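Here's what a typical entry looks like (Uracil phosphoribosyltransferase homolog):
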Amino acid sequence: MTVFNIMGSEPMATLDMTAVKVANIPTWIDISQIKLAADLRPDQTSHTYPRLWQQPCNPENNSGSGDSSNSDVPAGDSFLGDFDLSQQIGAQLKLLPMNDQIRELQTIIRDKTASRGDFMFSADRLIRLVVEEGLNQLPYKECMVTTPTGYKYEGVKFEKGNCGVSIMRSGEAMEQGLRDCCRSIRIGKILIQSDEETQRAKVYYAKFPPDIYRRKVLLMYPILSTGNTVIEAVKVLIEHGVQPSVIILLSLFSTPHGAKSIIQEFPEITILTTEVHPVAPTHFGQKYFGTD
């Protein structure tokens, strides 16, 4: 299912050039049929949740674990600007439905004054929300169970053949969240760093379940900046027989450029994130692991 998250009480999108009220639209919307309203400014909307526009708070530099540097965005500029997400990225980008809880967690993670304890607590909570939604994208099958009182209950259970892959080091922060939801899931690892001479992403280590080519893969990397690291990781997975169509990339924050680069390279991949914004919190890995 191709989706895009838009919430709010004002008309925030146009469908076939006709304004539609968000109250009449489901939370998840097919972005391939939506043209983002490029002329909406913050003072023209009464609700902050749609996230179509945002002024960056405490723009970060590249002192952390993002896959490239970010350029600061002038206050008041849109987080998409003239970037037509529905046309240029396509159908594979999914955003968690925005609410006050997610917005607060995003704020704490971006706040340079937040203590490491508060940062980790908020990051773990946000990771758990992303992982839970990622699991919703995996296939289920119907099953029948017997209750303690002897009744038959028709339910569902995961189909076998799923695994996680973390891109070291920042991706390892998401492993516990996945294990908390799936105790027996197998998790592989990829280490990708910039080559000192060429400055290009280079694979230094990769270890996967031997039958990964048969599995659906939850690829974990919290911050998407340029997308180069993820692109290299997906290439390694393809070399091991994994099809891009069975890869779900779980991230916390993404830049428009990062998401676009990944999906242009692999049009069948799915990206799940909480926010698309030009300034990504690239300090994430250093602060989470205490190396800042």
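DSSP finds seven helices and 17 strands in the chain.

More examples are in the samples folder.
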